[in-house]
Amino acid sequence: MTSEEYRVANIHGRDVPWDPSQLRQIQEHPCFSVDACHAFGRMHLAVAPKCNIQCNYCVREFDCVNESRPGVTSQVLSPEEAIQRVRDVIVDFPYVKVIGIAGPGEPLYNEETFETLRLVADEFPYMIKCMSSNGLLLPEKVDLLHELGVSNMTVTLNAVDPDIGKEIYSFVNYHGKKYTGREAAEILLENQLKGLARCVELGMITKVNTVLIPTINDHHIIDVAKKIKEIGIYLQNIMALIPQYKFADIVPPTMAEKRAMQDKCGKITRQMTHCRQCRADAIGRLGKDVQEKYHHQ
Asked: Cα–Cα 20 to 30 A to 63, which of 18, 70, 78, 209?
């Protein structure tokens, strides 16, 4: 067993290595392996514009080429346009090994996501497929994602206490009904945890993104780390708040403060420390994006 296999196996409490396909889903995915980010790239297909929750730190702007943050894209693609984008990118940049859908809204709330995944699975079965989600619809969609070949799953989980969650989300739109306050946070949290547990059960490589929001959840992130360790999540990614919307006046954490939180949580569960908080249409290696090449195609 190599050192990498040993490390991976023991994070999930296993005493045998993962199979080769699971190892590849880590070793060639730049978000799941710090070594991979230097050698391999990913591309995000921006096919999912609608969102079913409102985070108090999120503003989604289209056609915003000068910003690099989640929720931003220069163009929303149709599934057919997305598959052509994949064809073009893998010719131009053969080091791209990962196809992901991360918005600009909530992927699981857009039927275009699933049509795109079907097209990708048919034409590019060898590519690693990943998804980023708020988790609200994950329990009812995760088995379909697995059938469509999604192997790597990321869920943004900012709190495991609804009393803290209610300060982070303005509303949740669940099955046609709008919820607010603690009730909204309870519904979201229940579905996030249930969906993540099913991902682990299915053998998907799982990551949790947690936004570090000073004065809101900074004292609570260690509890998030403990909970995801209990579930069996592979990786936690603590991201600094980008002040916007209702949290526009909150002073974001410094790099030192974020690193200190990562160090604390790293004693509990594995940490991603090389995140670049990518756009919904990002293409290329982390920090070396090339999506501008395709803005007018």
From this structure: 209
Q: Tens digits of per-residue pLDDT, 153-182?
A: 999 999 999 999 999 999 999 999 999 999
Helix (H, G, I), strand (E, B) or coil at 158: coil
Looking at residue 279, its pLDDT comes to: 76
Indicate the number of domains in the chain: 1
Relative to beta strand 288-289, strand 283-285 is antiparallel
pLDDT digits (tens, 9 = 90+) for 198-247: 999 999 999 999 999 999 999 999 999 999 999 999 999 999 998 988 99
| Sheet with 53-55, edge to edge strand ranges | 53-55, 169-174, 177-179
Which range marks the domain in which residue 19 is found?
A: 3-294
Average pLDDT score, the chain: 86
Of residues 207, 270, 272, 279, the one with CA closest to residue 242: 279
* Cα gap 199→85, rounded to integer Å: 28
Q: 34: domain CATH number?
A: 3.20.20.70
Q: What is the pLDDT of residues 18-69, one digit of tens each?
A: 677 787 778 777 777 777 666 788 899 999 999 999 999 987 665 544 444 5
- Sequence-distant (6+) residues with CB within 8 A of 66 are none
Question: Contact at 8 Å (CB) between 55 and 169?
Answer: yes
